[in-house]
Specification:
The complex is a heterodimer. Chain A is α/β, with parallel strands linked by helices. Chain A is 37% helix and 18% strand. The radius of gyration of chain B is 17 Å and the shape is elongated. The mean pLDDT of chain B is 93. Classes of the chains: A alpha/beta, B alpha/beta. Chain B: It comes from Solibacillus merdavium.
Chain lengths: 131, 186
Amino acid sequence: MSNKVAIIAANGGLFDAYKVFNIATAAAASDKEVQIFFTFEGLNLIHKQGMHALEMPAGKEHFAEGFAKANVPAIPQLLEMAQDLGVQFIACQMTMDVMGLTKEDFVDGISVGGAVTFLEYAKDAAPTLTF
Amino acid sequence: MIKSDVQLDAKGLACPMPIVKTKKAMGNLTEGQVLEIQATDKGSVADLAAWSKTVGHQYIGTNEENGVFYHYIRKCNPEVSEAVEKSFEQTISNEGAIKEEGIILDVREAAEYAFGHIPGAKSIPMGELSERMNELDKAQTIYVICRTGTRSDLAAQQLAKAGFTNVYNVLPGMSGYEGELQKEVE
């Protein structure tokens, strides 16, 4: 059985962030090796400023109350926890070039890589998830 | 109130926090100790059982009281626990131990016992055996049981060394027991 979980984060909203980081921290807490490949809007989730201002999907803003009531941790807190548990973050080089972003725009501890970097990691991972 | 070695308060926390906290707390336990996790997240009921299975710890059970879930997990080392050789020579099957005259001594942790034991079995957790041996009668036949026969093997050796002669290790143990269970929790 594979002990690796590979995740592609390709979307940049608040809901996307929860899907990505919840699964990632849960997997890491279950002793799995976890790598997340952030590409296109997914880069928002690890952007130093962007991750503090992730938006809810249009028309779903009323869920804010539910998040508070359920005592769901904030994204920066979840992100830190994921890193704490050893989750590896890979930012997509090509998307960064397109968007004019550099490694310094992102949280500490990430690495930058291309599609092959992720594919190499994911080739024997199970499951591979896309959000 | 079920006995545990370490208690973790995860009340009010949403998924995946109870799991993350449990993982961290488990790191501070020694093998064989029992962790109690107090949580209000309803998802924790299924999640902690699944987590234990994935990571290789023993999920003992969950008890709900006034909206709080009390989960019990016993720390295991999956690489060694099942592979340990049993060396105590006198053994008996589960069925044999129940049928024959004598007492069944359950040496699992108090929480494991609380979530289901053979009716009438006496509980003395392995770690308390040396100081509680005076509760046992040397004239009686003692059938020592645990989950898989490993702890009961050690307990039987300990009893034999202390002068108990009619001692049997019950195999396979509670993991293979399908009869009636007596519980101390609802």
